[in-house]
Every structure is written in structure tokens, then in C-alpha cells.
Design a protein that fits this description.
The protein has 3 helices and no strands. The protein is an all-alpha fold and 60 residues long. It starts with a helix and ends in a 15-residue tail after the last helix. Keywords: Membrane, Transmembrane, Transmembrane helix.
């Protein structure tokens, strides 16, 4: 009885909709990330190590 009620519930579509929304957003973000070239991320990759010092060692 309980399984029949759950099998006919319209709420079963909600997890599927959420899954497809997640896959769509994940795919778009992945595509946009992979589309950028390495030169775009080069300054960002050094950001945590950059303390703002000039190449001569003086703080600007």
C-alpha cells in the first residue's frame, strides 16, 4: 500500500529535475573553465605567493 502511494507520487520528479539542473550547471561551469587559456590563470596561480614586493625586494 505504501509502495503504491510512493510509486504514483508526483514528487518523484523533483529529485530528477534537481539532478538535471545540477548536471547542466556543472557542465556549463566546467566548459567555461576549460575554455580559458593558461595565460588567463597564470597571474591567479601566483597570487597566494605574491606579497606585493617589487622584484628588487622593496615593498611598494
Amino acid at each position: 500500500m505504501k509502495s503504491d502511494l510512493l510509486a504514483k507520487s508526483p514528487l518523484l520528479a523533483l529529485p530528477l529535475v534537481a539532478f538535471f539542473v545540477f548536471l547542466t550547471v556543472f557542465g556549463v561551469v566546467f566548459f567555461l573553465t576549460m575554455r580559458k587559456r593558461a595565460q588567463t590563470y597564470d597571474p591567479l596561480s601566483r597570487m597566494p605567493l605574491d606579497d606585493g614586493a617589487s622584484p628588487e625586494g622593496e615593498v611598494s
